[in-house]
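Suppose you are handed a protein chain with no further information: no name, no annotation, nothing but its sequence. What can you learn? This example shows the usual starting point.
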Amino acid sequence: MNKSILISLLLGSSMFLLLSCGSPAQESSTQATATPADNSSLVIVEGRIEPVRYAELAMDASGLVSEVLVQEGVEVSAGDVIARLESSQVQNLVDAQAAAANELTSAHQALQDAQFELDNFDIPVEYSSMTPDKAALQTMDLLDQARDAFEPYKNLGEKRLELSDAEKKQDTFETYNDKAKLYKHRLDNAWADHRKVILWLALDSNLKAAQARLDKAQREFDGLQDPTYSESTAGVRSVLANAELRAPFSGTITRLDLDVGEFNTAGTPVVTIAELSSWVVKTTDLTELDVVSIHEGQSVKVTMDAVPDISLAGTVGSIAQYYTEKQGDIVYEVILNLTDTHPAMRWGMTVDIEFED
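A reasonable first move is to predict its three-dimensional structure. Written in structure tokens, the prediction is:
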């Protein structure tokens, strides 16, 4: 429920009338003076406490859970093994490292072979200054022109029968025959050039594919060798060393839904890890009327429902650019950065947020 409360303080105006007494015929009055209204607005909404960073983890393979090495509430470091699977379709980190080394070696050899074939290919001189793809486009255009030029002469036998009954047309037929041979020769040459350029294009594509394969193999090999288990290489480990679920960063295991002997389905979130050293507050209670009165960096005061006598300081960290609908209202998510903490703080606790002027 939207708890937005708008508190307005209005100072009423007073009317003063001053009368002066003189002669009965002389009488004056002072017009009423209104004091301008002082309207101060205060926006209070409800939000929830969340860790500044958390992640829901899933394994990239299916299989029976063979080991669970942590419990809920324990702290882990980046790269620590949380659980392992037992399956012929998965591999642990050591196996993944060995496989990555083999793939890297094969990728290097494939690149050398592709480069050798391209280096020893006899590129047509007239196309040597072009790239293979541009040469392929030009030869295709020339082939289309040669095919169109030969089209009227492709049925040479039928044309000879038409002309053989008329001796006077002998010269015409011979001229026709010469042209047919000429255009057929040009068409054959156009086909030959086009086929050769297409082969050149294929060799060039093979080289590019081999280079891409080598780049990928190098990234995967480097990721599996990373001794710091950094977040940038966590994805590689999760995909290749898919028999193991490892912590992508240091934090606390806040949820663990894995038991030894149970079947794990790939892609199903089973572990939540969070950094509980710092917190933020998220709220989706700010309507379109409220959100226009706040700004990033604005100071806020946060009060936990569980500890109402303690106020925590913070600032507006971000305001969503896109809206959601909540019980018929247009609302925007706002994230607050807390500068204060309290030992009683827990993930999901409800707080009241007061946006200060």
